[in-house]
Amino acid sequence: MELRWEVLETCENLARARGRVAVASANLALIRVPGGELVRVSRPPRLEFVGWRYGARIKWSGFRSGRRGFWGRFLSRLPDPPVGGYDVYGIGPGPVPRPWVASPFLHRGYALTAAFTAVPFASSCPSCGRLMPLHPWDFQTVAFQRVERQVTAMARCALCSSVVPLPMKSARPALRLGLSIVSPGDTVRRHAEDAAREIDSVGGSGTLLDRLAREGAALGELSTLQIIALGIALDEEAEVEALESSWRSAEEIAAIMDGELTEIPGFETFRRRVLGA
Predict the structure, then answer these.
(1) Considering Cα of 254, then 39, then 32, then 19, what sign does the dihedral take?
(2) DSSP string, 139-181
(3) What is the pLDDT of residues 118-127, one digit of tens each?
(4) What is the mean pLDDT of residues 35-57?
(5) 52 versus 193: which is more confidently predicted?
(6) How far is CA 15 from CA 8, 31, 59, 63, 266, in A?
(7) 43 by DSSP, 3-state: which?
(8) What 8-state DSSP symbol labels residue 1?
(9) To 5 degrees, how large is the angle CA 226–CA 232–CA 236?
(10) How far is it, in rounded angstroms, from Cα 152 to Cα 168?
């Protein structure tokens, strides 16, 4: 805790002495300092936080100067489609391939195919046990369902063709990737605050996922606003888990430093052996 306070104090001193407030509200402030930016946060309501993070309140100078986000960098490294008639990505010039007919994500077909050619949907298929790829045209059929009181993502494995339930933690990275493709940044910025109101109206991110699971709607059946709200909800869940994990690690380290783990049977013998004492 002392280390954390020192970091906070250093940031606060830097903000006060050399910082320039770029934009501020009652709960959030973006402060430009030499070498970077600081964000001062109190307890912003979701609408305000989403307006800052996804909306158009901050001018994305980093993007204009050529710095791209993670997904932009990732997609830029994918191979170009082959020249000629061999369409390895499943969509290209000429007639629309059958799997993409009537797909609501047809206009993002190439990007989805490029992404899911490189990224598996899950690390293991519950049916065949192998690394689970996803046919890009099947992204529209991914749906949510409650299995043993947990919200799961139902998806078709491209290897065994089984529709399997996947824990949200397992499917979430690929879901976030696909959603970022079908709802690009300019669309998100236009609708982010309305999506935040949608999440608030149902009672939060967890409740939104529960409602989607009860309805069993597939991604291809959701409106643009619902897709953006889902993306925000998945972002929130991922960040809460990351924060909790960070705190657990810090608490474990603090416990070791405080000597709380030395009472475990055999620990002192192990410690002396490792230290050579």
Answers:
(1) negative
(2) GGG-EEEEETTEEEEEEE-TTT--EEEEEHHHHHHHHHHHHHH
(3) 889 999 999 9
(4) 84
(5) 193
(6) 10, 7, 20, 24, 49
(7) coil
(8) -
(9) 140
(10) 5
